[in-house]
Every structure is written in C-alpha cells, then in structure tokens.
Amino acid sequence: MMRNREQKERTWILPALLAVLLCGACNRKTLSIFFDVPPPPPTPTATPAPPETAAGGGAPGIGGAAWAPTPTPTPPAIEKTLAWSEARPQLPLDALGEVAWDTALREGVIRPRKDVGKPARDDDFLFGFDFFFPGPDPLFDAFFPHSVHTRWLACSSCHPAIFPVRGTRFSMADVAAGEYCGRCHGKVAFPLSSGCSKCHTKVPAFKSHTPRSKGVYGDIEFTAHDQTAPVPPAYFPHWLHRIRFRCSACHPDTFEMRKGANPIKMTEIQKGRYCGKCHNGSVAFAVAFDTCYRCHKPAQERE
After folding, report:
1. How far is CA 195 from its chain centroid?
2. Is 186 left (phi over 0), alpha (psi -120 to 50) or beta?
3. What confidence tens digit (pLDDT) does each residue in 219-269 have?
C-alpha cells in the first residue's frame, strides 16, 4: 500500500515541477516563489523623440534626433550700403592708408561668398605655399604669399592664363604694364606706387601717394556695344561686389581677368551671361528698363 502511494506521488511531482519551470520561463516573478531568482530589471522608459524644428524639421537622424539645416549666416552690416562714402569708414586700413581687404575678411567685416547664389562659408582653403622670387639683388627678393591669395582666388584664376608654369620670369616693367601681378595690383589690389614693402620685404615702407578716397578699386567704365540710345556709360563698382563675393566667384569662369577682354553686350546679359549670371532678379536686381540707372550713371552721380 505504501509503495503504491509513493509511486502515485512521484507521478504528479514531476509534471508539477515541469509546469513551474515552464511558467517561470515566461514569468520571472512566478519562478522566484520556488527558487532564489533575482527580480527582473525595471522596464526602461522610452525617451520621446524631440519635436521637429520650425527651421525645417525633417526626417529623424541618428538616435531619433530631428535634423535641422545649418542656419544661413547673417550678412555683415557693410552689405546694407550702396555708397562708397558709407562703406569706406567701416573697412580697416593698412599702414599706408589703403583698404586692407584681407584684414577685413579675417576680422569678419566682410563675408564675401565663394559661389554665386550660395551663402558665405568659413571653410577657407588656404594653400600655404609662400615663397620668394629671387630679385636682381637680395634687397629686391619678392615675397609671394599663396595663403593670402587663395582666400580670394581659385587656382584657375591665375594658372595657367596669367602664370603658365612655375618659375615664369617677369619684370617690374611687365607688372607696371598690367601683366602678371599687374592684372590686379594697381587696380583692385594695393597700388604699385606705395606697396613696394609688401612684396619686397627688405625695402622700408613709405608713402608715395595719396590714399584713394573713392571707390577706385578696379572700377570699370564701359559703353555697351549695341546701345541704341544716348545713355551714360555703364559703370561697374568693383568694391561693391568685393564685399559680397570673392574674386573666384566671377573670375575666370564669367569674366577673364583682363580689362577689355570681355565683349559684354546687353543682349548677352539678357541671356544670362556675364552680368546676367547674377542680375536675374534672384541673386541681384534684374536687368530691366526700370533698373538701367543703377549701372548707367553720369560720372557726377557715382560714388
């Protein structure tokens, strides 16, 4: 009788243990009643994704954070003026009294764009290959800072059209005639008459001219080839464009860097070439009858 009872107990104990184990596999709390099992860890609370931003919202990025576009930098105050008499006091001057354009760029007085129709950026490419050209005497060795020029220009602005190969030989007579460095210096960059010490670093600095008080920094006067009415010549203020765009935005793709080399006609501008690349009503004011006066100005009305 006792043996039969033990056998019956064994028959239900084993299924009961199996049932407990099965329940415990799904429920750690039930399993802890019969065995020394630690309680389950607390259920993590899901962190809600941040709301989409008003500046553009967008698709969720890594980690569920909302993506927002990089804000466009605020244009500097100098871009609010169209008059040289108002712009000049805002620009830093060098020791010779000329506008220090590179200083203005470094200090953020101006934030000229590298590309037409795109905001200004701070990802300057600085090619630091600065070197000396040997002169006829060590006193006249000329220093050329690539690192300064690449703030304004693209490599293609000068190579190979102006400087074909490394080691190109030229003289001050060539520069004074408007070739090589003279394509810019004496026009849109510091004048040759006072900037000797900026290139020939062993030559003492001196002033030999009166600093330019008007916007004569490569400003160009030209008459349209296909004009049909007596209107004032078109006037191009380089300084006005320089505070908004770097040289590489226009040179050499839109304009060859040589005065008289670009046969600009109103018909070409209206097709979106030359000045029409920007003056289309999107980047700058459109070319139309009611905007003629902005370029075709009598000399006495220019600043």
Report:
1. 28
2. left
3. 888 765 455 557 888 889 999 999 999 999 999 889 998 878 888 888 999
Kindly state the helix (H) or strand (E) to which residue 221 belongs, with its residue range: strand 220-222
Give CA angle at 24 (23, 29), nearest 5°: 115
- Domains present along the chain, CATH in parentheses: 77-199 (3.90.10.10), 220-301 (3.90.10.10)
